UniProtKB/TrEMBL annotation:
Residues in Tetrahydrofolate dehydrogenase/cyclohydrolase catalytic domain copies: 6-120
Lineage of the organism: Bacteria, Bacillati, Actinomycetota, Actinomycetes, Kitasatosporales
Entry protein name: Bifunctional protein FolD
Known function: Catalyzes the oxidation of 5,10-methylenetetrahydrofolate to 5,10-methenyltetrahydrofolate and then the hydrolysis of 5,10-methenyltetrahydrofolate to 10-formyltetrahydrofolate.
Subunit structure: Homodimer.
Molecular function in Gene Ontology: methenyltetrahydrofolate cyclohydrolase activity; methylenetetrahydrofolate dehydrogenase (NADP+) activity
Organism of origin: Streptomyces triticirhizae
UniProt-listed GO biological process terms: L-histidine biosynthetic process; methionine biosynthetic process; purine nucleotide biosynthetic process; tetrahydrofolate interconversion
Tetrahydrofolate dehydrogenase/cyclohydrolase NAD(P)-binding domain mapped to chain residues: 139-282
EC number of the protein: 1.5.1.5, 3.5.4.9
Binding positions (NADP(+)): 165-167, 233
InterPro entries with a match to the protein in the record: Aminoacid_DH-like_N_sf, NAD(P)-bd_dom_sf, THF_DH/CycHdrlase, THF_DH/CycHdrlase_cat_dom, THF_DH/CycHdrlase_NAD-bd_dom
Keywords assigned: Amino-acid biosynthesis, Histidine biosynthesis, Hydrolase, Methionine biosynthesis, Multifunctional enzyme, NADP, One-carbon metabolism, Oxidoreductase, Purine biosynthesis
Cellular component GO terms, alphabetical: cytosol
Catalytic activity: (6R)-5,10-methenyltetrahydrofolate + H2O = (6R)-10-formyltetrahydrofolate + H(+); (6R)-5,10-methylene-5,6,7,8-tetrahydrofolate + NADP(+) = (6R)-5,10-methenyltetrahydrofolate + NADPH
Length: 286
């Protein structure tokens, strides 16, 4: 068996095309979307991701506001920029690129974001709304994973899903999303404390690998025909991406997300979608 490719690049392009139309419809409403980003430090991966977010904005017609601070920035300097973005009317939604440099209290920074401008869905109020089943911007990568599964008709209702990882951007919230009534999956969250990861993986209909451990999921861990999504990003000595999923999994899985061009572009598309939805909500309120 050769797995069907869960093509995130093509799916994100479809989503962006739809967003372009919706943004055009907002013209004249006085609620044009503007995405802000705050990048602290010089991590090459983070610089690439933020640059990609602004390229996407230009491509769909969202205004861009870019703020950068050096790796030596203090907690106070970072919080001052967050306060400035909270108050900037041109910035309708924004993100603080993670991870922040060592020594910075990232939770304090996230808590300072105005929940109505939280384009990442990572503010505690919005994560709380997600738990309560209230409308909220959804965390981008988890939402992108679900959109990708739906786009390729991977059965989610009743599926046994294993999410590997418990980080704030993916692992924490993806099980919440997948276990909503609308998705109806049964989710097991695995992490470094899981005693027999291989046994959990072998029983899964869908595996989402977000541990950041190169080639953690090997062909012998995958039930034939299962869907496997590779969210992990490590880099080899040449800077090339090495995912959490061993390349040999393509021979066993029913569906496989490539990495790059799988979940990454979906993350960016879901960010744009959160920004546009917020502008539409504001326009509807007049
Ligand atoms: N504030 C946030 N920080 C981080 C998030 C997040 O959702 N919000 N997630 C990740 C990084 N991330 C988004 O910011 C992200 C990761 C990957 C991509 C992407 O398009 N990747 C490309 C490959 C790019 C490359 O060559 O390096 C792909 O997969 O095709 C976009 C965004 C951590 N931080």
């Amino acid at each position: 068996m050769t797995a069907q490719t869960l093509d995130g690049q093509a799916t994100a392009a479809e989503i962006k095309s739809d967003l372009r139309t919706r943004i055009a419809a907002l013209k004249g409403s006085g609620h044009l979307p503007g995405l802000g980003t705050l990048l602290v430090g010089d991590d090459v991966g983070s610089q690439k991701y933020v640059a990609g977010k602004h390229r996407d904005c230009a491509a769909v017609g969202i205004a861009s506001i870019q703020r950068e601070l050096p790796a030596t920035a203090s907690q106070q300097q970072i919080e001052d920029v967050v306060t400035e973005l909270n108050e900037d009317p041109a910035c309708t939604g924004y993100i603080v690129q993670l991870p922040l440099p060592r020594g910075i209290d990232a939770n304090r920074v996230l808590e300072l974001i105005d929940p109505d401008k939280d384009a990442d869905g990572l503010h505690p109020t919005n994560l709380g709304r997600l738990v309560l089943g209230e409308p909220a911007p959804l965390p981008c990568t988890p939402n992108g994973v679900i959109r990708l599964l739906r786009r390729f008709d991977v059965p989610i209702d009743g599926a046994e899903v294993v999410v590997v990882g418990r980080g704030v951007t993916v692992g924490r919230s993806l099980p919440l999303l997948l276990s909503r009534r609308s998705e109806n999956a049964t989710v097991t969250q695995c992490h470094t404390g899981t005693r027999d990861l291989a046994a959990h993986l072998r029983a899964a209909d869908i595996i989402v690998a977000a541990a950041g451990v190169p080639h953690l999921v090997k062909p012998e861990h995958v039930k034939p025909g299962a869907a496997v999504l590779d969210v992990g990003v490590s880099r080899d000595e040449t800077g090339r991406i090495v995912g959490d999923v061993h390349p040999g999994v393509v021979e066993v899985a029913g569906w496989l997300s490539p990495n790059p061009r799988g979940v990454g572009p979906m993350t960016r598309a879901m960010l744009l979608s959160n920004v546009v939805e917020a502008a539409e909500r504001a326009a509807a309120q007049g």
